[in-house]
Design brief:
Layout: H1 2-5, H2 8-59, E1 71-73, E2 84-89, H3 97-103, H4 107-116, E3 118-122, E4 126-135, E5 138-147, H5 149-197, H6 214-264, H7 269-299, E6 309-312, H8 313-327, E7 333-336, E8 348-351, H9 353-370, E9 376-382, E10 386-392, H10 425-435, E11 439-445, E12 449-457
Parallel strand pairs: 7-9
Antiparallel strand pairs: 1-2, 2-5, 3-4, 4-5, 6-8, 9-10, 10-12, 11-12
Helix pairs in contact: 2-5, 6-7, 7-10, 8-9, 9-10
Length: about 475
């Protein structure tokens, strides 16, 4: 319950206030103690000057015959507030208790002066500095004392000023923390509100970018990219279900219709045979479609283990072309080898020969079929890292608005009604290319033709320890 009430915005505001308060208190304390320390040092320096002056004045006299334990109150001009100067002759037994009682200064102060030559002391009101000196073979102590008015009176004003400044600083830091936390979280709250509006019904919605906010724009771009993938996946799934349902129901409807007609009345043996042949033909079509669907599902499964060998793409391509020419003599295929590399090892890829044969054969066969058996140009080339196959035809092409559906299983473009096919060749080929860590790119213009580019990493680019020479 507490965590639900205390939001991150509130936590941030409190954290900022704590930080600001700590900094203000630290600097306030630093200023206060620095001034106090400076005041002490400065006042002791003034008292030291006064003590030195007293010693010089006393040494300038012809006679300084003071009785033992006699207190000589100084008659120096008073320059410091409440200044009192003293000159004592050191008792012969070094016992300062009598003097201490008379002037209310601890005798340890006198002893320290005698031991160190100079010492300072302060009580609640007065500051003292004393020096020892000799005059005519006798030892004396000179002391200057005064009240530190600045520390006593002005320090109170400094305390009140600092407290007032700290209170005002805390007030303004609270306002600043609230404004800063609200400003920081405002775009995030806006994104959260927009994300809550997005559902499966309106996946086309996208988050708006925020100018001058690079980190937030990266988050927005990442989320929009994720929405793009989800929307594409949803559309693909919807198309797949529709296409598969339609393709599987068509032969089933035909089988059921033929069986129903055959059973409606008694027929001759030849008529039953003809009906059974139609049913068998439709059942075989249904079987092919189901097998094709299973093949797409299997090749689309990344974890499926396939036997991989070294495959020379040029030999594979010649084999595919020969096979397609045997299947249909109308297939007019021209193989362009002008871009072949000097090193034939660059044409080797690691892959499954049967699957690669199936993928390349599907692409070239589509080019032949949808160009009405005009010449299809197949180009083979390689770089140091990749092998390229480019299949270009001058056929009917693909409508621009349908290009986003070409990888949907059983999808057929609207201009292919006069051509046989199930719409599985291209998605199957793409799955196979992906299994080989390759890339398949389709570009097409309706009534102008289609170009399909296949790219596979060569065998040596996937084996860094081996060299291609």
């Amino acid at each position: 319950m507490f965590n639900k009430v205390i939001t991150n915005q509130t936590k941030t505001m409190v954290l900022l206030m704590v930080v600001f308060t700590t900094i203000i208190l630290l600097f306030g304390g630093l200023v206060y103690f620095s001034i106090v320390n400076f005041s002490h040092q400065r006042f002791y320096e003034l008292l030291k000057i006064r003590t030195t002056t007293i010693v010089q004045i006393e040494k300038g006299k012809q006679h300084l015959d003071l009785p033992e334990n006699y207190v000589l109150n100084s008659l120096n001009d008073e320059e410091l507030p409440m200044e009192k100067d003293y000159v004592f002759m050191v008792p012969t037994d070094s016992n300062f208790k009598k003097i201490s009682q008379e002037v209310h200064i601890p005798d340890t102060f006198f002893k320290n002066i005698m031991r160190k030559g100079e010492d300072n002391y302060n009580d609640k009101e007065f500051y003292y500095i004393g020096q020892s000196f000799k005059f005519h073979d006798k030892e004396y102590i000179a002391i200057a004392s005064a009240k530190n008015h600045y520390l006593i009176y002005y320090l109170g004003f400094l305390k009140r000023t600092l407290v007032t400044c700290i209170v005002l600083s805390l007030f303004f830091s609270m306002i600043f923390s609230f404004y800063l936390s609200k400003t920081l979280f405002k775009p995030i709250l806006k994104i959260t509100g927009k994300v809550k509006q997005i559902s499966s019904e309106n996946l086309h919605l996208r988050l708006e970018s925020h100018p001058d906010n690079k980190e937030l724009n990266e988050l927005v771009d990442t989320f929009n990219d994720m929405l793009n993938r989800i929307e594409t996946s949803f559309e693909t799934q919807n198309h797949l279900i529709g296409n598969v349902s339609h393709e599987l129901r068509t032969p089933l409807t035909s089988i059921m219709g033929e069986a129903d007609v055959a059973l409606s009345i008694n027929r001759t043996a030849d008529e039953y045979k003809e009906t059974l042949e139609i049913i068998l033909d439709e059942a075989e079509k249904l079987d092919k479609k189901i097998k094709a669907l299973l093949m797409i599902a299997q090749t689309g499964f990344d974890g499926k283990i396939q036997k991989m060998d070294k495959v020379r793409i040029d030999q594979l391509l010649w084999d595919v072309i020969e096979t397609l020419r045997k299947i249909d003599t109308r297939n007019n295929i021209y193989l362009d080898i002008s871009m072949l590399p000097e090193n034939p090892k660059k044409l080797k890829v690691q892959g499954n020969e049967q699957l690669l044969h199936l993928a390349v054969a599907n692409i070239i066969n589509n080019g032949c079929k949808y160009s009405n058996f005009q010449q299809v140009k197949v180009s083979l080339g390689a770089t140091d890292t990749d092998v390229y196959i480019i299949v270009k035809d001058n056929g009917i092409g693909i409508p621009k608005e349908e290009m986003n559906k070409i990888y949907d299983p059983f999808f057929r473009a609207s201009n292919t009604k006069n051509y046989e096919g199930y719409g599985i060749g291209l998605p199957l080929a793409r799955n196979i290319v992906r299994m080989h860590h390759g890339e398949l790119i389709v570009s097409s213009n309706e009534n102008q033709g289609t170009t399909v580019q296949l790219r596979f990493p060569n065998f040596y680019s996937t084996q860094p320890e081996e060299k291609t020479v």
